[in-house]
Amino acid sequence: MGSKFNWGWKIGLLYGGFVVMIITLAFRASSEKVELVTKNYYEEELKYQERIDQQHMADSLHLRPEWTVGHGEVSMKIPSVGQAAEVKGTVKFYCPSDAQKDFSYPFTAKTDSEVVISHAGLAHSLYRVNVEWTQDSHQLLSESVLKID
Q1: 10-55 pLDDT, tens per residue?
Q2: What is the DSSP letter of 83?
Q3: 105 with 76: CB under 8 angstroms?
């Protein structure tokens, strides 16, 4: 008597395993959390050319913030150009992996002074940091990537 487990059963099991794998992948993909950087991304996209101009202005004036990540704090130093005595702006921390870790920090500082931000509230993660500030009547923008350990 021959074996009941012939090539037909093997093809059926292979096909069944493939179907189970595809259903598992589809379920996992549909349950994956997808977060946008901002809730009103369409309005911000329309204003994106202004952001590009602000970045070019900061680059042409060589005004990139210098970052130092220390124990328990993050410090930012904006170099001075011109006669600006005071710099006002906002630092926005975006965590690509979790929108609940995002936050903004408004600041006012003297030029060439450091702005110290406590990162006790920051989780250990990678952050995209956008700094928008006004200096010498120029609207400026700088983008950086920081890793908080």
Answers
A1: 999 999 999 999 999 999 998 887 766 667 777 877 888 888 888 8
A2: T
A3: no
